């Protein structure tokens, strides 16, 4: 054998050895997958290989029961990040309304029957918080593009044959088709609040879309709380939303109806009293001591599955809802049915220990204010859903309140009871 | 002849032969190790479905024992033993023992101590698991 051939064989042998050593090292350094088999799906997934440091998203969605993929999608067996994330639903937000049915739906989850109060997706995607149909109708009526206040257009075209209000569909609001320049400007500048809209720039407005706009708090729970971190790392779902989350849309400023532009708040609030509402607002002590969600109900915020022209037609929490009037006590219900919605609500975020036989306040439409209770002396107690703080209060009936029974809006009560700041 | 110009004890040809042999041997050993690793790979054994709970006499009448090996509770009444799964029949969360029964921490379903459904959203009672006593007097719980 010629010398050159012998040398080539040695070189080839060395290359073979180096290659095998490299392969062995690569195999030994590969990520060891962390397997999880959620009891709900029974299918192994490797997401925790990289995401084991994530906190449980909520007590109602434990990871060992649900896993990750049932909500987020993705390639459950991939160990490469790009491949694993390539088919995720909604990117970092599976609760965006464009994918919510696949992520959160299901008869046992959030698209069940209205009778079981499980039609959350149907409710929220037809609610005026998403359709913005009420505001669109109001602006179009104000500027002469429609002749009444009935909702006809929304941020999406919707058919809702089951709607009980007579409004069974909404067309898509297309500002470019509007006659009024103001309505066109409204379409350009004023549609950043509905649940499918991306928020305007600014950390104080930062929120997700869809269900997560409210249920994934992105803001510190108090004015002096810790600043918002990286939104992409927030992994939380809750029904106890702090007022700061509501303020990403509400109380954040005003719309100038002449120029149809958003005017942000200019006050730099240092405490909750000043932060809760913008400077022009009037409010009572309970309105800034409690959280928004302590009084305003799920139906009021999420709708009831039908299409409406005004939030007030869906559910309207007023002062009298909890305090009654001079002639009537507030509406109450004694819990006799173990399947009463109040028990489920109280179980999801257990700040109160509701029991059969307890009497709670209810809204005009019978919706339970489950964090309230009628006390034996005829007064009432309410527990803050976020703070756990307990408040007691009296009915108006039997007091020297000077209210006019015909005027029960908040502004009437504010004449005597507004907080000075 | 000068010592410096002596022929080395290992000729170039022998050196190349030795190097080739050593390199191929090392490669072969690594290859064999890889094959050994491949063929000796053990898949995870299937989850056990038979749990030895120890002597039946260890559970006194009237006792209610939440088991550690499996999410289940063992009840011993005057009528004998009953084992209830603590997996909620709604969506599969593990229910917790409370003063008046079992409660699901996920969605609030409630069950009494016999596993009967008190409150939804679960639609079924807790599942009763099969029990057997072996010849040595040990109680066995089956989850299949």
Care to describe what's here?
The complex is a heterodimer of chains A (about 425) and B (about 140). In chain A, a hairpin with a 4-residue loop joins strand 4 and strand 5. Chain A has 20 helices and eleven strands. In chain A, about 30% of the residues lie in helices and about 10% in strands. With about 425 residues, chain A is α+β, with helices and mostly antiparallel strands. Chain B has one helix and ten strands, in the order αββββββββββ. Chain B has a six-stranded antiparallel beta sheet, with no helix packed on it. Chains A and B meet through helix 1 and helix 19 of A and helix 1 of B.
Note the main attributes of this structure.
heterodimer; A: 421 residues; alpha+beta; three-stranded antiparallel sheet; 31% helix; B: 144 residues; six-stranded antiparallel sheet; four-stranded antiparallel sheet; 1 helix; 30% strand
What's the helix and strand layout?
The complex is a heterodimer of chains A (421) and B (144).
Chain A: H1 3-29, H2 48-51, H3 63-66, H4 69-72, H5 81-85, H6 100-104, H7 120-126, H8 128-131, H9 133-142, E1 153-154, E2 158-159, E3 169-172, H10 181-189, H11 212-215, H12 243-246, E4 253-256, E5 261-264, H13 272-275, H14 285-289, H15 292-295, H16 298-302, H17 311-314, H18 319-323, E6 332-334, H19 341-348, E7 359-362, E8 368-369, E9 372-374, E10 380-383, E11 390-393, H20 410-417
Parallel strand pairs in A: 1-3
Antiparallel strand pairs in A: 2-3, 4-5, 6-7, 7-8, 9-10, 10-11
Chain B: H1 12-39, E1 50-55, E2 64-66, E3 72-77, E4 80-85, E5 96-98, E6 101-103, E7 110-111, E8 117-119, E9 128-133, E10 138-142
């Amino acid at each position: 054998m010629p010398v050159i051939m012998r040398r080539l064989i040695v070189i080839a042998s060395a290359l073979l050895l180096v290659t095998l050593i490299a392969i062995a090292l690569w195999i030994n350094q590969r990520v060891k997958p962390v397997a999880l088999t959620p009891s709900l799906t029974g299918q192994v997934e490797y997401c925790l290989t990289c995401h084991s440091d994530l906190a449980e998203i909520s007590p109602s969605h434990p990871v060992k029961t649900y896993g990750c993929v049932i909500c987020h999608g993705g390639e459950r067996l991939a160990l490469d990040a790009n491949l694993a994330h390539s088919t995720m639903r909604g990117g970092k937000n599976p609760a965006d309304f464009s994918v919510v049915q696949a992520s959160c739906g299901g008869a046992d989850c959030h698209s069940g029957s209205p009778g079981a109060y499980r039609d959350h997706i149907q409710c929220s995607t037809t609610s005026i918080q998403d359709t913005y149909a009420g505001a669109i109708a109001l602006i179009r009526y104000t500027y002469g593009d429609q002749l009444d206040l009935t909702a006809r257009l929304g941020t999406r075209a919707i058919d809702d044959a089951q709607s009980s209000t007579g409004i069974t569909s909404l067309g898509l609001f297309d500002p470019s088709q509007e006659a009024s320049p103001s309505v066109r400007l409204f379409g350009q500048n004023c549609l950043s609040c509905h649940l499918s809209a991306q928020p305007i720039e600014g950390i104080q407005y930062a929120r997700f879309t869809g269900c997560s706009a409210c249920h994934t708090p992105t803001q510190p729970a108090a004015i002096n709380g810790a600043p918002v971190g990286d939104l992409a790392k927030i992994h939380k779902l809750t029904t106890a939303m702090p007022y700061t989350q509501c303020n990403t849309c509400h109380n954040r400023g005003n719309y100038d109806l002449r120029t149809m532009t958003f005017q942000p708040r200019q006050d730099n609030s240092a405490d909750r009293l000043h932060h809760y509402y913008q400077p022009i607002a009037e409010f009572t002590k309970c309105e800034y001591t409690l959280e928004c969600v302590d009084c305003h109900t799920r139906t009021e915020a999420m709708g009831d599955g039908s299409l409406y022209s005004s939030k007030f037609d869906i559910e309207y929490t007023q002062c009298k809802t909890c305090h009654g009037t001079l002639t009537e006590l507030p509406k109450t219900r004694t819990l006799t049915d173990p399947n009463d919605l109040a028990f489920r609500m109280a179980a999801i975020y257990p700040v109160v220990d509701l029991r059969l036989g307890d009497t709670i306040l209810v809204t005009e439409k019978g919706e339970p204010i489950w964090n309230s209770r009628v006390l034996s002396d005829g007064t009432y107690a309410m527990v803050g859903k976020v703070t756990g703080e307990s408040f007691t209060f009296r009915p108006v009936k039997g007091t020297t309140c000077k209210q006019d029974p015909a005027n029960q809006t908040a502004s009437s009560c504010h004449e005597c009871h507004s907080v000075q700041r | 002849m000068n010592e410096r110009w002596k022929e080395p004890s290992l000729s170039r040809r022998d050196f190349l032969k030795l190097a080739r042999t050593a390199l191929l041997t090392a490669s072969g050993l690594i290859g064999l190790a890889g094959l050994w690793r491949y063929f000796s790979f053990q898949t995870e054994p299937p989850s056990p479905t038979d749990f030895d709970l120890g002597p039946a006499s260890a559970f006194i009448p009237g006792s209610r024992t939440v088991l550690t090996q499996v999410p289940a509770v063992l009840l011993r009444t005057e009528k004998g033993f009953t084992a209830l799964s603590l997996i909620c029949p709604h969506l599969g969360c593990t229910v917790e023992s409370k003063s008046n029964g079992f409660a699901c921490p996920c969605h609030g379903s409630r069950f009494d101590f016999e596993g009967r459904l008190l409150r939804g959203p679960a639609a079924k009672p807790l599942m009763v698991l099969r029990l057997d006593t072996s010849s040595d007097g040990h109680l066995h719980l089956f989850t299949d």
